[in-house]
Amino acid sequence: MDSATWDGPAGVTGASDELVRELMIRPWGQVTPSVYETGRVVTLAPWLARHADRVAYLLAAQRDDGGWGAPGAYALVPTLSATEALLAELRRGTETRQESATLLEAAGRGLRLLSGWLAELTARSLPDLPAVELTVPDMVGRINGHLDALGEAGCPGLRLRLPAGMDTTFLDIVRDRIGSGRQVPEKLLHALEVAGDAAAGAASVLPTAIGTVGASPAASAAWLGDPAGRAAGDPVLRHLEAVVVRHGGPVPVGFPITVFERGWVLSWLVRAGVPVDVPPELVAELRAVIGPAGTPAGPGLPCDADTTSVALHALTLLGMPQVPASLLEFETETHFCTWQGEQGASVTVNAHVLDAFGQYAICRPAERASYERVMAKTTRFLLDRQEPDGSWSDRWHASPYYATAGCALALDEFGGDGSAEAVARAARWVLDSQREDGSWGRWGGTPEETAYAMQVLLMTNAKWDPAGREAAARGYDYLHRSWGVVDNPPMWHDKDLYLPIAIVRAVVLAAVHLAQGAGVVVPVAGPLV
Fold first, then answer.
1. If we measure between CA atoms, which residue out of 162, 103, 111, 108 comes closest to residue 138?
2. Model-level pTM?
3. CA distances from 261 to 59, 109, 290 (A)
4. How far is Cα of residue 266 from the mean position of the Cα atoms in its chain?
5. To bridge 257 with a disulfide, which of 29, 172, 476, 499 should be the other Cys (CB 3.0-4.6 Å)?
6. 23 CB contacts (<8 Å, ≥6 apart)?
7. Closest Cα partner for 319 from 260, 360, 279, 290?
8. Would residue 221 be called left, alpha or beta, if left means φ above 0 and alpha means ψ between -120 and 50 degrees?
9. Contact, 247 vs 32, CB < 8 A?
10. Angstrom distances, CA of residue 133 to CA of 80, 194, 249, 377
11. Does 114 have pLDDT greater than 50?
12. pLDDT surpassing 90 at residue 250
């Protein structure tokens, strides 16, 4: 993509075509490494290739204050994981004296920071990350065990406590069920590493055909246990080796993400009107994965309404509509759940469900009556969840701009006249929250969040507002100036925050295309994503 330029729609189209081709070339997806997941693999699989690279990654990623990860409480999970991994490495005693001193200094800084945080945090104040009620107690227990074993060599007298309102009850139940060979919900396999020794070779857990457990390197390493007794060609071992080679040692928190990546990339590009060339085999593969219960984001994960709805929406936009009846498997009395047994609810999942039903109804108007009820239900749910300032927030992304774009676009297109005021309020919030440099962002301006904001202004009725068009032009200018200079931070929710690289590129390309097509900017020569 380095050779593409901001020379108008042709440049966006060329970059988008290349991005879509990469979906076929890299079918497992493009995801940034995770501090949490890498820390777990350091602890669980010191025998795995490129172990030293993972330790070096953790040391290099430590912040000046001793923590790891994003601002605020988002830092708790990665800081616990990195600190525990460094302590585990110290206990192995395989380093030189200088290396041990480096590990101890980094772990000590992490421990001191954690001690203060955990005394102040409550279970309710933690971000809504998947399995956080399991990962935090697991790592606090591991760290305290290391401190007991290290004694005077560690941090004498220091012990970590759990956040107020959190205990080990659920963790104990999961460990007991795994240890006794009983089945657990499929979604829990994504965090199998919390089961401790019971995870190794657990009889109730079956790796996928490609050798992953729960689409998680940490869960896969936990299930594999000591590889000494396994054949060199063991599929789980080979999968882990492939993952670490692919990422240079560190590992992502969720991998593969095949269907998730393909659905989101195609839906963002095609919805924005980018004339992208989609290989027919890619469309065929996307169709093939949707069954009566929907589709998972990738091998090893349960089917979910989010991936299913986005895949269905993308297929309909591409002229290959599939009956969206599988989504009804996720319907509750008030909304659509991400998966069966979900605690809480997601506005973006319901926005994507509305997209899927609404786009299908446009393509198959004779069947619209069959889906009017569920479209009205999801519309009400989204309207009821809008914040007083006009934004939305969600459990699958740290930024309100992601949630607001998803909800505003769905309501504007498929929510009916009764949604117009909510969409207008969302656009006003976007306008009011633009930064001086033309960007948008929760913690600071980012290309990803700026692209979401621009889509709200250019894909809803706000596109007729001169103020909105001017703001979008400033956003476009920021995207041009920031390319290659400003990184997109991990903001997507999993056990740790992560960045789905191809999806975010598609989001930015879509915003650039919209700005150029709307005539709010003069295309400028320069690098394009």
1. 162
2. 0.94
3. 30, 37, 15
4. 17
5. 29
6. 261, 262, 265, 282, 502
7. 360
8. alpha
9. no
10. 13, 10, 28, 30
11. yes
12. yes
